Each structure stands twice: as structure tokens, then as C-alpha cells.
Amino acid sequence: MKIETQCLHAGYSPKNGEPRVLPICQSTTYRYDSTDHVGALFDLSVPGHMYSRISNPTVAAVEEKIAALEGGVGALCTTSGQAANLIAVLNICSAGDSFLAVPTIYGGTINLFAVTLKRFGIECIFVPPDASEEEILAAVQPNTRLIFGETIANPAVCIFDIEKFARAAHKKDIPLVVDNTFATPVLCRPMEFGADIVTHSTTKYMDGHAVQVGGVIVDSGRFNWDNGKFPELTEPDESYHGVRYTQDFGKAAYITKARVQLMRDLGCYPSATAAFYLNLGLETLPLRMERYCQNAEAAARFLSKQEQVDFVNYPALEGDPGHALAEKYLPGGCSGVIAFGVKGGRAAAVRFMDSLKLASNEVHVADIRTCVLHPASATHRQLTDEQLIAAGISPGLIRLSVGLENIEDILADLQLGLDSL
User: Fold this and answer.
1) Taken in order 388, 391, 392, 397, is the CA torsion positive or negative?
2) Helices (H) and strands (E) in the chain, counts
3) For residue range 301-344, what is the model confidence (pLDDT) as tens digits?
4) Burial of 81 (0-12, 13-18, 19+ CB in 10 A)
């Protein structure tokens, strides 16, 4: 099936007389006819659900759908994008390990990686997104377990060179993890360019309606975990009566371990109702992404022609530094997020935003409604000036998330902001 059809049909196929729409299985537990069957569930030798802390029929259907959309062997939904990135790293990193990441990633992820994981004894080494392959290889240490980046950076809106970082990662026998939140699999499927693991904050475009926080991890099933560097996947897991993930689950070793070990222990699994809302968003994702891209490109071109505007970051524009990478990885469009600055710095940015009538000033992005944010004052407020610069965030940078309103109304609202300067 093509991706538009997968968004509607993958993950759930009702049988004769069953509900056409994915039902909400709002239950914490499941009944079985025998003790032996329950034991087989815990041995992972038969399919089924033990407890809704680690799996649920409604959530499982959505996981299957997202795995199909990204081209992976399996997926694990979480209660937030932060939880997804945390589990993606902790699944193969322990105290004493390190991993690489580019500093242009979301500010909350930078804080998770550089501060919280540091407290756990895991070091994040930041490398510039424009680093050469040789520089990336030189940054990899003997204890480095993975490389991490975002397809479209939040909020700098620069493009991650997936193939370059994948080549470097694979030369060192470590996986590449890519956060594909802004692109979604409609615009880019990172696994087709060498990514091994993909994560999302499903709160954003996948949900699309600002109603449900969530995240997901997708396993490509293509990485060779038997290369001698990942004993947690190849040696017996004593916390799960000696299961060997690569031996027992083959290509699904990584995502199975994430579920039965980390999700079991951390318990950040979404509810059936949360998955139901997410599925509603997924069903219209291709249609929405098309309109987001159309509206955003029109808004970016409008802003780039205004004398009050200092810069516009939107890779679909021909003069953008990321335009060549966007043509390679995002030929269908660059999502609905624009980063731009107005002349006059922070004070002018605040005046512009406070003058808007249609766009909401809110801590969100990728909604069906247009919204704006000043990252240096909000989502990236915890970063130092040096970290802000590394993340591509100037004091006057505005993140504009273009919604699905009529483009003429969006441009008229932007004009209100410009007229205030």
C-alpha cells in the first residue's frame, strides 16, 4: 500500500462484524484460560498482551501502523517524545558509555542528553551538523554507542545529512538514531537513507490537533547487533530469565528489548485512549502535510521579501543553506515550520508576536492552527548563550508553525506583526 492508504488501513483490519474504526480497548489487564498460557506470554513464546504497562491492543495497532509508515519491523509507543528519545538511548547505553549528537536538536532533548543523562554516567558528545565525515569519525570514542540527529531541526529548521552520519556510524559499527518529528514519514523516511532507529514526538504532526502528548520508537530491523559491541542484546538478560534478544527475536531484537525490559521498568506506555486520538491524526496526515508545506512555503516567500525581516530559515527556499539537502531528503516539502528573525532583535520579535491576532503565542508546534513561539524565552530558555548559538538560535529568532487556515488570512496576520515594527 502507498503511504496515504497505510495511514488509513495499516495496523487494524476488522474481521466480519467487527468495528470499522479502531476500537478503544480501555483495560489494564487481560484474561486467559490457563496458567500455562500466561506463563507462555511471559516467556514471549506466544503473542498477546500481559498488562497495559507494556502493551495494549489499541496501542499495538497504532504501533503497527507507524512501523509500516516508516518501513520498520516494529514500533513502541511512549507517553512523550522525550520518553521515546530516552528509551532509544538507554536501550543500548549504560553508565560509562557515550554517544554523539548534533547541537541543533530540540532544546529539551539537549537538556535530556547533556544534563540528565550525564547524571546517569552517559556522556553526550556534540558534533556540528556540517562536520565532515572524517570529523564525525574522529569524535567517536571506544565507548560511543550511537549517533543522534533530527531530520528537520527544531527550531533552527536546518536539515540533517542522514546519509553522511549513517556512513560514519556504520563505519564504527554503531547505529544512527534519527528524530523524524517535523518531517514525518510522509515527507521523509530516514531508514531509506541509512537510519537504523527512528523516533517521533507524536504530539506534533502525527497527532496534529494539540490534543495528546506522545512519542514512538521505530526499529528498522537492519542493524547488525551481533557485531560484538552490544552485549545487552546478545548476552542473556538476567532481568528476563536469560532471554537473548538477537537470538530469540532476530531483526526485532532492539524494539523487543525496549518493550519487555525498559518499558516494563519505566512504565511510560500510553493509554488506549491516547492511541485512539493519535490514530485519528494519522489517518489525515498525508493531506495535512501537503497543506502545511504549501502554506509554509508561501509564508516563507512572503517574509523573505519584507524589509523588516532579517532572515528566513526554510529549506524549500532556493537561497536557504539547506536547500540542496532538502531537495535530496524532502522533495515533497519541508513541513510547516519556519524560523525567521525581525530586525531589532529580541524586543522587536516580542513586539511582532504580541501584535498577531490569528496566530497563537503558545508552547507548541505542528498544530492545525498557526502558532508562534520565541524559543530563547521558552523552549530553549534553559540553554546557555553558547548552546543557543550552536543550536542556530539567535535572540530574535521566531518559530512560526503555519497551520491549515487560508493562506491569505495567515499572510494578513503576519502583516499585522510587521506593521507593528
Assistant:
1) negative
2) 19, 12
3) 999 999 999 999 999 999 999 999 999 999 999 999 999 999 99
4) buried
Residue 33, all three cell numbers: 484460560
Neighbour order of strands in the sheet with 197-201: 74-78, 215-219, 197-201, 176-179, 144-150, 98-101, 123-126
- Between CA 250 and CA 230 the distance in angstroms is 14
Q: Which residues pair with 100 in a beta bridge?
A: 125, 147
The pTM (predicted TM-score) of the whole model is 0.96
331 to 26, 180, 186, 334, 417: CA distances (angstroms): 40, 15, 11, 8, 31
Beta bridge partners of 101: 126, 148
Instruction: Write out the DSSP string of 301-368.
Output: HHHHT-TTEEEEE-TTSTTSTTHHHHHHH-TT---SEEEEEETTHHHHHHHHHHT-SSSEE-S--S-S
As beta bridge partners, residue 147 has 100, 176
Q: What is the pLDDT of residues 117-166, one digit of tens each?
A: 999 999 999 999 999 999 999 999 999 999 999 999 988 899 999 999 99
Q: Buried (b) or exposed (e) across 164-182, using 16+ Cβ within 10 A?
A: bbbbbbbebebbbbbbbbb
- Listing DSSP states for 174-231 in one string gives --EEEE-TTTHHHH--GGGGT-SEEEEETTTTTT-SS----EEEEE-S-S-TTTTT-H
Q: Cβ atoms within 10 A of the Cβ of 27, count? A: 14
Distance from C-alpha of 309 to C-alpha of 306, rounded to nearest angstrom: 6
> Which letter does DSSP use for residue 124 in this model?
E
Pairing of strands 397-401, 371-373: antiparallel
Q: DSSP characters for 383-401?
A: S-HHHHHHTT--TTEEEEE
Cell numbers placing 232: 545487552
With a CB cutoff of 8 Å and minimum separation 6, the contacts of 384 are none
Alpha helices in 213-284 (DSSP H): 231-234, 245-249, 253-257, 264-266, 272-283
Number of C-alpha atoms within 13 angstroms, CB side, residue 172? Answer: 25
342: left (phi over 0), alpha (psi -120 to 50) or beta: beta
Lookup result for grid cell 556540528 = 128
Q: Are 57 and 77 in contact (CB under 8 A)?
A: no
